[in-house]
Design goal:
Distance between the termini: 38 Å
Structural class: mainly alpha
Number of strands: 0
Largest sheet: none
Helix content: 55-70%
Strand content: under 5%
Length: 62
């Protein structure tokens, strides 16, 4: 981070830092939503009425 290392900041450097933070926030939101959906699918698959066949053998590759 040039502005930290050089101890100089500009409107452009602050804008880049803000944009990077916003990009990270958006990715976190996407991953959180994906995890929530996966939790829902796992819960549905584990339910006896899900229609999913249960196999007790070792799991194969995803």
């Amino acid at each position: 981070m040039t502005c930290v290392d050089a101890k100089v900041n500009t409107p452009e450097s602050r804008a880049r830092l803000t944009a990077e933070r916003d990009r990270i926030d958006a990715r976190i939101a996407e991953l959180t939503a994906a995890r929530s959906r996966l939790d829902e699918v796992i819960a549905l698959a584990a339910h006896p009425d899900s229609g999913c066949a249960y196999e007790s053998g070792p799991a194969g590759p995803p």
